[in-house]
From TrEMBL:
Residues 9-196 form the Outer membrane protein beta-barrel domain. Residues 1-20 form the signal peptide. It comes from the Bacteria. This is Outer membrane beta-barrel protein. It holds the Pfam family OMP_b-brl. Coiled coil: none annotated. The keyword Secreted does not apply. The keyword Nuclease does not apply. SUPFAM superfamilies: OMPA-like. Keywords: Signal.
């Protein structure tokens, strides 16, 4: 399947519901045990080369819970759609559903500025409608990030993938799996977000 290059920035929209034990100590934001956060990624990309046009749309909600002051665990879902055409003729029509779990470890989560490391595992199911091919896959990734509360209600967040592995296999007899391993900083894979602390 053709891979698209994303030139549009990916927006991460988030909402945080905090359940702090002592509100007087939470004047500059931050996270603590018992906090729940909801976030999500919404992205759109477009590529045009002559008469060949490609579009991709992604939405991926995420929910997490702080089981301690430094550790959060959660679940995530995802949907991605790829469409392409060449002068009115379809060249790509596929979608992917994903579900997974993640864990985060925070350094200084109760302060205005925090660092975190996220480890996630996903199951994916892809349907290539144009070629009538379905495939299933598993991926795992490690992504460090930073979170900064600009007030007691709003924070900005950034993360980037640095280590990832994925395997995918088509759903027909004799199909071979496709395995990918990536390591290194990729500046095109940086996600920025806004967090609202209720």
């Amino acid at each position: 399947m053709k891979k698209l290059l994303f030139t549009a920035a990916i927006a991460v929209l988030g909402f945080t519901s905090a359940n702090a034990q002592d509100d007087t100590n939470n004047t500059t934001g931050g996270f603590a045990q018992g906090d729940i956060f909801l976030s999500g990624t919404v992205g759109f990309g477009n590529e045009t080369t002559g008469d060949v046009k490609s579009n991709v749309f992604t939405i991926a909600p995420k929910a997490g819970y702080f089981i301690s002051d430094n550790i959060a665990v959660g679940v995530k879902l995802g949907y991605t759609s790829w469409k392409g055409d060449n002068d009115g003729t379809d060249t790509m029509d596929a979608n992917e559903f994903a579900g997974g779990a993640f864990g985060r470890y925070y350094i200084s989560p109760a302060s205005q500025f925090s660092l975190f490391a996220e480890l996630g595992v996903d199951y994916t199911s892809t349907d290539d409608k144009l070629n009538d091919i379905k495939s299933d896959g598993i991926s795992a990734g490690f992504a460090p990030g930073i979170s900064y509360f600009v007030s007691d209600k709003f924070a900005i967040e950034a993360s980037f993938g640095i280590l990832g592995y994925s395997t995918e296999k088509a759903d027909f007899d004799g199909a071979e799996s496709t395995d990918n391993f990536n390591f290194g900083l990729n500046f095109s894979n940086i996600n920025f977000g806004i967090v609202y602390n209720l």
